[in-house]
């Protein structure tokens, strides 16, 4: 992946705080600018949401039992209402990300090319719209995976519809698959992304305008969509995965989709922001993960966590219980580093999808090879490639119980990708996580409840959605979570 720095002045202008929770209200004053500035803003907002450990908006490191809160343990015990977490998830995704991308599309469609680019503009336009739409597909999939039925066909109309209907999650997935295939086909890698008035490539924080990389990412996202519905719609799932693999998915970390954060505020890592910059010691390692890694001689533990004091020991707190920060392992150095990249999708994740595709349908190569590649990639991600072979030898792929092999090892490997980890766990049902000790429900959450703001401003539609999915509960499975 090509790297591009974030432009502090630009982001300082664009990162406008939101004063409303209405997902269709236009919150930005910069919508008269060029499209690429809105794309930059959307990419930064998307990466921030996916990667932040803020208890106000993304608690999946807690849900997946990687971390445990030290003092205020409500979110570790699945109380997400006190902080209106779902409200913030809607704002992060519908307002900060999707509204920006919708307006960027509007500006592109309204653009009148100068005479010198009349011939090249159709290809440039097509490429710009495809790249933007791929990001929209990624964001909508996250929302479906989090809530189930969501506003989709009537969403993000920028004030034209303040009470959007909720679409069926399975139908949204089907549409996203079709939409993404069209996006991938639309990308002309012989063309460009830059118009006479807009250096779109320089504003692209993920791939610096590299169209081959965007195409590869699109196919990898298509594979993710296919794998997600493997149990709910196996025919479409296999067709989708086959298409993605045949077209070419991510095959090395060089193609990872990530945002490189900078050293200074507001452009440093959101993990650093919440773990170090706020001068609070709010998180320690969770006992579930640390005990597993200790028992299995997993050397990644030295990257994931810090040892307690001078003992050299890694100790995690019981999930749901308060913790003295000094007595348990803090998150590793990566969390205290300003420039830790924000991961949207990486080769490790894709290699686990390929393992699933191999195990389920016999496509995408050998399951054993893909499993080995996934774990090897994870160790490489943390700078300890030489330790991978011994770990894999001690934890070989088990074709007779491949869900346990993939589910458990993906859970460990996706430590810094908690949203993705949550999907693996719900789909494969491994590892066998137990609910927090003082949990508000009797199981680990399998979805987030709809925002209180929706009940206030869009009551009829959210009530209908709640009824359609079987109740607006943390324990209500979304459509693809069949087992």
UniProtKB/TrEMBL annotation:
PROSITE patterns: PROKAR_LIPOPROTEIN. InterPro entries: SusD-like_2, TPR-like_helical_dom_sf. Keywords: Lipoprotein. Gene3D superfamilies: 1.25.40.390. It holds the Pfam family SusD-like_2. The keyword Lipoprotein applies. The keyword Lipoprotein applies. SUPFAM superfamilies: TPR-like (SSF48452). This is SusD/RagB family nutrient-binding outer membrane lipoprotein.
């Amino acid at each position: 992946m090509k790297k591009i720095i974030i432009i502090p002045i630009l982001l300082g202008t664009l990162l406008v705080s939101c004063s409303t929770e209405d997902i269709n209200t236009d919150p930005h004053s910069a919508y008269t600018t060029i499209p690429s500035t809105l794309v930059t803003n959307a990419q930064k907002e998307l990466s921030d949401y996916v990667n932040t450990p803020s208890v106000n908006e993304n608690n999946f490191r807690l849900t997946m039992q990687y971390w445990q809160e030290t003092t205020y343990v409500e979110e570790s015990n699945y109380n997400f209402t006190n902080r209106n977490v779902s409200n913030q998830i809607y704002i992060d995704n519908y307002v900060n990300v999707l509204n920006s991308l919708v307006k960027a599309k509007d500006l592109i469609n309204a653009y009148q090319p100068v005479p010198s680019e009349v011939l090249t503009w159709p290809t440039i336009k097509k490429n710009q719209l495809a790249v933007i739409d791929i990001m929209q597909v990624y964001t909508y999939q996250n929302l479906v995976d989090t809530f189930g039925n969501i506003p989709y066909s009537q969403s993000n109309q920028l004030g034209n519809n303040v009470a959007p209907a909720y679409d069926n999650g399975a139908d949204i997935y089907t549409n996203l698959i079709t939409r993404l295939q069209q996006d991938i086909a639309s990308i002309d890698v012989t063309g460009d992304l830059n118009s006479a008035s807009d250096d779109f490539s320089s504003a692209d924080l993920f791939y610096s305008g590299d169209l081959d990389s965007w195409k590869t990412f699109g196919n990898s996202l298509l594979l993710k969509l296919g794998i997600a519905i493997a149990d709910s719609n196996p025919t479409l799932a296999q067709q989708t995965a086959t298409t993605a693999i045949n077209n070419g998915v991510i095959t090395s970390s060089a193609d990872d989709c990530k945002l490189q954060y900078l050293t200074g505020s507001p452009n440093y890592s959101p993990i650093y922001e919440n773990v170090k910059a706020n001068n609070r010691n709010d998180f320690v390692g969770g006992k579930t993960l640390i005990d597993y890694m200790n028992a299995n001689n997993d050397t990644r533990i030295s990257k994931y966590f810090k040892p307690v004091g001078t003992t050299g020991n890694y100790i995690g707190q019981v999930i749901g219980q308060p913790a003295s920060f000094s007595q348990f392992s803090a998150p590793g150095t990566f969390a205290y580093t300003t420039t830790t990249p924000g991961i949207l999708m990486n080769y490790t994740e894709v290699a686990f999808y390929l393992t699933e595709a191999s195990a389920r349908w016999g496509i995408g190569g050998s399951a054993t090879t893909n499993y080995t590649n996934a774990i090897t990639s994870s160790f490489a991600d943390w700078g300890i490639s030489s330790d991978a072979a011994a770990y894999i030898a001690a934890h070989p792929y088990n074709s007779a119980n491949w869900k346990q092999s993939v589910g458990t090892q993906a859970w460990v490997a996706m430590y810094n990708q908690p949203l993705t980890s949550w999907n693996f766990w719900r789909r494969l049902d491994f590892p066998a996580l137990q609910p927090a000790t003082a949990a508000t429900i009797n199981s680990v959450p399998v979805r987030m409840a709809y925002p209180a703001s929706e009940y206030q401003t869009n009551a009829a539609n959210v009530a209908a959605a709640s009824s359609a999915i079987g109740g607006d509960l943390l324990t209500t499975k979304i459509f693809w979570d069949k087992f």
